[in-house]
Amino acid sequence: MAMQGMDRLIRKLTRLGADKEAMKRGIHKATIKVQGDAKGLAPVGDTGDLRNSIKAQVTEERGKIIGEVSTNLEYAPYVEFGTGQRGQASPAPPKYDGDLSYRQDWKGMPAQPFMNPAAEQNKTIVSDIVAEELKKEIRRLGGR
Predict the structure, then answer these.
(1) From CA 53, how far away is CA 63, in angstroms rounded?
(2) Is 91 within 8 Å of 78 (Cβ atoms)?
(3) What pLDDT is stored for residue 22 in this prediction?
(4) How far apart are CA 17 and CA 130, in angstroms?
(5) Which of 18, 55, 70, 131 is the most buried if burial means most Cβ atoms within 10 Å?
(6) Residue-wise over 101-123: b if at least 16 C-beta within 10 A, else e?
């Protein structure tokens, strides 16, 4: 999810003497919140591997700060979006845009979404968390 107007705000804070660290802190806190919710929503099997694989990270690419919550498990998309007839019929998040087909020759399993709902339920909270860190930075700079 992209936050509108952040580029302009970052430029303004930079002119005031702030660095990007406040933004990075805010985005880091927000990704941790989404990660926690995704872990809470993820189905837990015998090992808990899916839940344990959900990671949060913050990177900077071409001057943009990017927060990402992800899992590297090969089967995670099948859990999130379902498989077979049941997966296709699931009232799940938007269907997967990668290489995942809903074969009709088997029942499959229904979607058990955890990543999309975690992102969706935190849309406004993410903005609030980042805004709070930026307000702290503005106060640190003397409210100029």
Answers:
(1) 28
(2) no
(3) 83
(4) 18
(5) 18
(6) ebeeeeebebbbbbbbbbeeebe
Matching residue, tokens 């997967």: 96
d(CA 23, CA 129): 10
Token readout for 7 is 């580029």
Percentage helix, strand, coil for the chain under 3-state DSSP, each rounded to 5:
50, 10, 40
Mean pLDDT of 16-31: 82
Write the pLDDT tens digit of every residue in 87-124.
888 876 666 667 677 778 889 899 999 999 999 999 88
C-beta separation of 70 from 54 below 8 A: yes
Distances 68 to 2, 21, 59 between C-alpha atoms, Å: 11, 17, 8
Taking the C-alpha atoms of residue 30 and residue 1, their distance in angstroms, rounded to an integer, is 12
Q: What is the pLDDT of residues 49-70, one digit of tens each?
A: 999 999 999 998 887 889 999 9
Contacts of 140 (CB under 8 A, 6+ apart): none
Residue with tokens 């009232």: 91
